[in-house]
Amino acid sequence: GTALRMTIANDTARIARVCLVAALAAGCASESDRRADAITETLTQAAVASESNGDYVGAANQYTTLMQRRPDNLEVTLGLARNLRYTGRGKEAARVLDDAQARFSDRVPFVLERGKAKLAAGDARTAIDLLTRARDLDGRDWEVHAALGIAFDLVESYDKAKAAYETARTLSKDNPVVLNNMAISVALSGKLDEAIRLLEGAPVAARHSPQIR
Length: 213
Description:
The chain is mostly helical.
């Protein structure tokens, strides 16, 4: 009986020690997770602030670090690609998005950004395919149509470009970016007078924008 009680006592002690170690490990993991979350949040805030302040190189660096921590996060992926594109590294941006396409291929913001990256990389034909797909997924996004207009301009399909810009103008009335790009497109097609009239007919608020000026 005494031996049996000693065995039970030893087993109980071992179980208690195992439970304590497991609890401590869980506590350590939880603390580690909290630190990791805090670091990720700090990096995210820094990346957003850098981009807002026009420091695209800094933002790209911060998003690169974030990608190592959160490779499956759509916003982080888009942030890295966008800021690489802003710094003139279109081919790098395209590679980032090519690598992530299996995860986000049905998401309109991803398809749109990938199309923009292909434009920045000089691959207008692939950009047209991607932006057409983005349009088919969600035709209500003016940026999709505006980007598609640029892509058509690059392959000298000016009628298609004009139609894309017209749709973008309908979705985002008096948008100076769209008006500017449409005027450039019309000028490229050889209709300089029409391009000038388009800009002169812009609303007063739009005419004050750097693009229209």
